[in-house]
């Protein structure tokens, strides 16, 4: 019996392009482009079109690793550099790419690799990104305890310095959902980490939201000048 494809999650699309948000950040808000977030990793999911025997894939496919306690196989590739987790159900997760185009190309390479070892109908179905990971260097030194004292009553802000040095801020976007939900980790050296975004624009919406909040608690820039 053929496997029923998992439906793609319904998430409202952003109303602006990434370029439009960046223009607003750099011109209207006056934020230097060097401080804007940079995408480091995109995780995407797709269905290969059929069930697969992971032992066969591990034995005959190239650049594949089978770990004893993992119920799938790990396939790695170059140009673009990627890692793919393949499961017997036919579900595949691509990670390690930095652009959507590279993610789609990596998925096609995985499908071609399966075709070469006896899965002629292998293809890329229902491809979609599930997580964007990015970071930003704001160049500010931030008073994390002061930031937490002001915003710590919110259930969406967490700070436990005895366990982790960063403050975790859950950005919830807007009611319509077009700005997404993103986890932002704020470090005292001004570095920001963004996790869980479903669209690239969500990263920049979260950055636009958090930047004035952390700027209020900036002691100075890392170059030593006092922040106005």
From TrEMBL:
Query: Which PANTHER family is this protein grouped with?
Result: TATA-BOX BINDING PROTEIN (PTHR10126)
Where does the source fall among the domains of life? Answer: Eukaryota
Which protein is depicted?
TATA-box binding protein-like protein
Pfam families for the chain: TBP (PF00352)
Is Membrane set as a keyword in this record? no
By sequence similarity, the record places it as follows: Belongs to the TBP family.
| Keywords per UniProt | DNA-binding, Transcription
User: GO MF annotations for this entry?
Assistant: DNA binding
Q: Name one GO biological process term.
A: DNA-templated transcription initiation
């Amino acid at each position: 019996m053929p496997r029923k494809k998992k439906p793609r999650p319904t998430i409202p699309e952003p109303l602006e392009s990434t370029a439009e948000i960046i223009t607003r950040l750099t011109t209207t808000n006056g934020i230097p482009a060097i401080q804007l977030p940079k995408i480091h990793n995109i995780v995407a999911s797709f269905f290969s079109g059929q069930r697969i025997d992971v032992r066969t894939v591990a034995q005959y496919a190239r650049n594949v690793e089978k770990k004893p306690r993992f119920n799938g196989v790990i396939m790695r590739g170059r140009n673009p550099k990627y890692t793919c987790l393949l499961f017997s159900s036919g579900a595949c997760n691509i990670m390690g790419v930095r652009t959507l185009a590279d993610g789609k190309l990596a998925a096609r390479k995985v499908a071609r690799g399966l075709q070469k070892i006896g899965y002629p109908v292998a293809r890329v179905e229902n491809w979609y990104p599930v997580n964007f990971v990015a970071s930003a260097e704001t160049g500010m030194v931030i008073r994390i305890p002061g930031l937490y004292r002001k915003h710590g009553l919110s259930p969406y802000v967490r700070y436990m310095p005895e366990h982790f040095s960063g403050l975790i801020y859950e950005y919830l976007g807007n009611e319509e959902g077009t700005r997404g939900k993103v986890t932002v980790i704020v470090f005292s050296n001004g570095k920001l980490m963004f996790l869980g975004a479903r669209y690239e624009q969500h990263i920049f919406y979260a950055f636009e939201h958090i930047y004035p909040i952390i700027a209020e608690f900036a002691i100075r820039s890392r170059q030593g000048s006092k922040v106005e």
